[in-house]
Specification:
Order of helices and strands: HHHHHHEEEEEEEHEEHHHH
CATH class of the largest domain: Mainly Alpha
Largest sheet: 4 strands, antiparallel
Keywords: FAD, Flavoprotein, Oxidoreductase
Protein name: Acyl-CoA dehydrogenase family protein
Number of helices: 11
Radius of gyration: 21 Å
Shape: globular
CATH architecture of the largest domain: Up-down Bundle
Distance between the termini: 43 Å
Subunit structure: Homodimer.
Family: Belongs to the acyl-CoA dehydrogenase family.
Number of domains: 3
InterPro entries: Acyl-CoA_dehydrogenase, Acyl-CoA_Oxase/DH_mid-dom, Acyl-CoA_Oxase/DH_mid-dom_sf, AcylCo_DH-like_C, AcylCo_DH/oxidase_C, AcylCoA_DH/ox_N, AcylCoA_DH/ox_N_sf, AcylCoA_DH/oxidase_NM_dom_sf
Strand content: 5-15%
Helix content: 40-55%
Strand order of the largest sheet: 2-3-7-6
Length: 393
């Protein structure tokens, strides 16, 4: 690991442990069950800015840390569910910043990306659609939201669902299909200023997780007019751009929730080492001690998978297969860790007295977000079949 990344990660960890963790009891956290309130976000980010740890994965010259360097920084930010929000490494902003940085024009970066890096604007990625409409979920090719050229504008219509952070966002990346660009794949992406009266939030969903500002919204887009120069990249290239974003974004989720699971393990270990039952401390009971030992194993395996996948991405690969494998392995491993932590702590583990209960809920959602385990396994199985056919040909 590089000295610069280690130094940044150490500063982030100190900030999260000393400044952010006390906010976990703040009543503005998980307001209405839909994430921390905007005033809390602004307050924590102001402190992160003063401490020099705001948006720590993007350097002052606009360049990014490598994926392997980013891993240890995001892992430390994840030691609290509020940590990524406070230091601006949270989804969907981190992934959106990465995509805009890769694809956008200089003018688009100045208008949309700069305030996001400064922690002054949150963003939303409008891709997923309501299942009831038969729209895009794990299969983006099912997208029903449309866009059509109209002079020097594009007009967008459709509905979106599970749009994280849409409520309160200032920057949106909207994905839609165009018959005019069908020959190039059909999907287009647009950068939009929010709020916009043509983008209406129908409702906020009550989800099992509660750490992301703005929650997860169902949205109607009606005759949204976007200037042609706000198209992100080229017409028809939306699906490849989505992969540019999603592969590292899956890995970033692994990084952040690795930190959260590590913290839950710390709390469960401390509990087991001080709590007594049946004449000895819980840690000395084999059933409890073995669960914590299994946590150590799962955490180390998750760490190694993250580092391996980060190395693949740093090598220039799109890494779709590797990120799918890592997303499956890490999300399932961290779910086991969080579940054992709850079990070790008994009644305390299912209460709000510690953050363990919330970590369990957040990681349970992580097994679905950015592609459920089963979808990634299906994708991997297709690759196995294809490679077998090629080998036999």
């Amino acid at each position: 690991m590089t000295d610069r990344a280690q130094a940044i990660a150490d500063r982030v960890e100190t900030f999260v442990r000393d400044v952010v963790i006390p906010y976990e009891k703040d009543p503005r956290f998980a307001v209405h069950g839909h994430g921390p309130g905007e005033d809390l976000v602004a307050e924590m980010r102001a402190k992160a800015r003063d401490a020099g740890v705001l948006t720590p994965h993007i350097l002052p010259d606009g360049s990014h840390l490598t994926q392997r360097e980013t891993a240890i920084v995001l892992q430390r930010s994840g030691l609290s569910p509020l940590g990524p929000v406070a230091v601006n490494t949270m989804a969907p902003d981190e992934g959106n910043m990465y995509l805009i940085g890769k694809v956008a024009t200089a003018e688009q970066k100045a208008h949309f990306l700069a305030p996001m890096i400064a922690g002054e604007a949150r963003s939303a990625f409008f891709m997923t659609e309501p299942a009831a409409d038969g729209g895009a979920g794990s299969d983006p090719s099912m997208m029903r939201t449309t866009c059509r050229p109209d002079g020097n504008h594009w007009v967008i219509n459709g509905r979106k669902a599970f749009i994280t952070g849409a409520c309160g966002a200032k920057v949106g990346i909207v994905m839609a299909k165009s018959e005019a660009a069908e020959s190039a794949g059909g999907a287009c992406m647009f950068l939009v200023d929010l709020p916009d009266p043509a983008i209406r939030i129908e409702r906020l969903l009550d989800t099992i997780d509660s750490s992301m500002p703005g929650g997860h919204a169902v949205v109607t887009i009606e005759n949204l007019r976007v200037p042609a120069d706000q198209m992100l990249g080229a017409a028809g290239e939306g699906f490849p751009y989505a992969q540019v974003r999603l592969s590292p974004a899956r890995l970033s989720h692994c990084m952040r929730w690795y930190g959260a699971a590590t913290r839950a393990h710390e709390i469960a270990t401390a509990y087991a080492c001080r709590r007594e039952a049946f004449g000895k401390r819980l840690i000395d009971h084999e059933g409890v001690g073995f669960m914590l030992a299994e946590n150590m194993i799962d955490l180390k395996q998750a760490e190694l998978m993250i580092d391996w996948c980060a190395g693949v991405l740093d090598g220039g690969s799109l890494g779709t297969t590797e990120s799918s494998m890592t997303k499956v392995a890490v999300s399932e491993a961290l779910m086991r860790v969080a579940d054992r932590c709850v079990q070790v702590m008994g009644g305390s583990g299912v209460s709000g007295d510690t953050i363990v209960e919330q970590v369990f809920r957040e990681i349970r959602a992580f097994r679905i977000y950015d592609g459920p385990t089963e979808v990634h396994k299906w994708s991997l199985a297709k690759r196995i079949k294809r490679e077998h056919r090629e080998a036999m040909a």
